[in-house]
């Protein structure tokens, strides 16, 4: 007996609680730069120059990429990219001008793009230019790691159609006149709507927009409702590989893990996920699905990403709390209070692992520093070590919270009598995260650190507690971290980077990061990550599958899982089982 493929059908996807797609314009700012808006929404419609992930491996998929493999000249400084002649839905051909349009905007508005890091792309370019209707060239200021250029620089680019090159007054020409890029950017951001506003009313206009309806991906947006239901239909003019099999793809908002699990049980959604803590991995291998509470009607697929998890600490906070955060020993004490093994074993039921530093532990690679791997991190769980760090630096830890008794040792801006106390805002609606935060609070209290917990809606949290000067938050946890392309630190830890969530600035870190991007030497990568682990500019947390996907048994084409978090619902199809 074989399974017979069915043409068409509707697949409904239950989104993570608190994270509706918030930005349709693929020039996404740092406060909304994440998997949900980019990889699970925008890229279905607007294909990037290079597609990350191929058959479950962390590499470029050349078939799904708009650009062909870069060709480098003999100096190692100039590469040329040929653009495939895919079509926009309005009939225009994807071309070099579409890339130059993007590059001009990046040159002018780089700090407002989430993947921008000061001093890197496009700041490290001597020039970029159209060399033929289907070719662009990029000349860098020096020779860099070609692997890093491809994975961390050129992957930023999303070609933009001529139809977007306009202002409220009509057509513009930011493609050829960079001076017009500012006005075009402002128009497109206005068409997007407020990126922080949580109400969906402005998002309901996206589907009918003459701007956002011009797509080159396999899907176009049919509707976005006030309730947050997103519906995609196939782009009839798609010219790339793998056109969709389904008639519709729906993405539904959920308010909690429990709600979306009920939708799975009822059969109202075909793709959802087990709430963390419900799934059990008895063998301790988080890459493999364990027993499935939903039975044989669903496939259990752990989504292992090339990522790290952490909570941010706010170096830009102008209060005494910020002065405390700026002291390395306090951050090191906080890290020493985080029992990652407990989280991996008890909270995530074997579907978790300790994150020892700034390089992903899984999928396994030779990129992790042996020194860090051997030690289990620079600051493994050790409450006595945390207490000693505080006591050695002027704090009375005989009570909790500890009290500053020697301000000359505690650090600048920490007066005598200060209590060691922080607020910690975290993503609401996730029981496993709440449990993990409660355990952190209780363990930190034993070392003399008071943690005051507050639940906040996920999308509100990342919008309000992101990078920025003189923000008032102290500790912030959205239950995740960062999915890498290639794990150098310019996006997260470079001074002034758009996604430097902790607002950390450190000259030595900048110097070490600069080394990692000019060589493929593992030693440079090890030196950088060891310094980050020692300084603790974030608090590393147990990492786990982003989701334990539950996929309806008769829905195929879902796997292999993309290690970067991108999705390809155009590959999904239904079967009549047992025909």
UniProtKB/TrEMBL annotation:
It is found in: Cell envelope. One of its GO terms (molecular function) is peptide transmembrane transporter activity. Residues 69-499 form the Solute-binding protein family domain. The keyword Metal-binding does not apply. One of its GO terms (biological process) is peptide transport. GO terms for cellular component: ATP-binding cassette (ABC) transporter complex; cell envelope; periplasmic space. SUPFAM superfamilies: Periplasmic binding protein-like II. Keywords: Signal, Transport. PANTHER family: PERIPLASMIC BINDING COMPONENT OF ABC TRANSPORTER, PERIPLASMIC OLIGOPEPTIDE-BINDING PROTEIN-RELATED. Belongs to the bacterial solute-binding protein 5 family. This is ABC transporter substrate-binding protein.
């Amino acid at each position: 007996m074989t399974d017979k493929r069915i043409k068409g059908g509707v697949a409904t996807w239950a989104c993570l609680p608190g994270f509706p797609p918030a930005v349709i314009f693929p020039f996404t700012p740092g406060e909304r730069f994440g998997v949900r808006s980019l990889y699970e929404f925008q890229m279905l419609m607007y294909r990037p120059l290079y597609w990350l992930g191929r058959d479950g491996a962390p590499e470029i998929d050349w078939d799904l990429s708009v650009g062909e493999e870069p060709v480098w000249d003999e100096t190692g400084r100039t590469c040329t990219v040929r653009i495939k002649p895919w079509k926009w839905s309005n009939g225009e051909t994807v071309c070099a001008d579409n890339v130059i349009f993007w590059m001009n905007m990046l040159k002018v508005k780089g700090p407002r793009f989430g993947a921008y890091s000061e001093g890197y792309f496009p700041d490290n370019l001597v020039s970029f230019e159209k060399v033929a209707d289907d070719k662009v060239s990029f000349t860098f200021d020096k020779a860099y790691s070609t692997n890093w250029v491809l994975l961390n620089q050129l992957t930023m680019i999303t070609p933009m159609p001529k139809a977007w090159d306009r202002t409220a007054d009509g057509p513009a020409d930011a493609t050829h006149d960079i001076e017009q890029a500012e006005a075009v950017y402002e128009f497109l951001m206005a068409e997007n709507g407020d990126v922080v506003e949580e109400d969906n009313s402005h998002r309901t206009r996206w589907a009918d927009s003459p701007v956002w309806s011009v797509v080159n991906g396999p899907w176009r947006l049919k509707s976005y409702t006030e309730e947050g239901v997103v519906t995609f239909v196939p782009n009839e003019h798609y010219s790339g590989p793998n056109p969709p099999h389904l008639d519709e793809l729906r993405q539904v908002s959920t308010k909690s893990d429990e709600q979306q699990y009920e939708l799975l049980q009822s059969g109202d959604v075909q793709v959802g996920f087990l709430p963390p803590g419900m799934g059990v991995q008895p063998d301790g291998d988080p890459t493999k699905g364990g027993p499935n509470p939903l039975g044989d009607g669903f496939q259990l697929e752990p989504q292992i990403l090339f990522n790290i998890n952490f909570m941010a600490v706010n170096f830009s906070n102008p209060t005494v709390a910020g002065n405390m955060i700026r002291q390395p020993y306090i951050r090191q004490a906080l890290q020493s209070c985080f029992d990652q093994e407990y989280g991996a074993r008890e909270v995530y039921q074997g579907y978790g692992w300790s994150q020892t530093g700034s390089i992903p532990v899984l999928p396994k690679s030779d990129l992790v520093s042996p020194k860090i791997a051997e030690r289990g991190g620079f600051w493994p769980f050790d409450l006595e070590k945390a207490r000693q760090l505080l006591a050695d630096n002027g704090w009375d830890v005989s009570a909790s919270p500890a009290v500053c008794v020697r301000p000359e040792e505690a650090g600048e801006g920490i007066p005598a009598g200060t209590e060691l106390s922080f607020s910690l805002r975290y993503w609401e609606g996730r029981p496993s995260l709440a449990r993990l935060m409660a355990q952190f609070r209780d363990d930190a209290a034993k070392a003399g650190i008071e943690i005051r917990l507050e639940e906040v809606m996920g999308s509100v949290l990342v919008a309000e507690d992101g990078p920025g000067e003189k923000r008032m938050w102290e500790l912030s946890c959205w239950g995740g971290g960062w999915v890498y392309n290639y794990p150098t630190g310019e996006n997260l830890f470079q001074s002034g980077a758009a996604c430097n969530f902790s607002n950390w600035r450190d000259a030595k870190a900048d110097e070490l990061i600069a080394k990692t991007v000019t060589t493929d030497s593992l030693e440079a990568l090890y030196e950088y990550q060891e310094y980050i682990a020692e300084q603790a500019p974030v608090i590393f947390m147990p990492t786990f599958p982003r989701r334990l996907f539950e996929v309806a048994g008769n829905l195929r084409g879902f796997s292999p899982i993309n290690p970067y978090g991108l999705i390809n619902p155009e590959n999904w199809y239904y079967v009549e089982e047992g025909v």
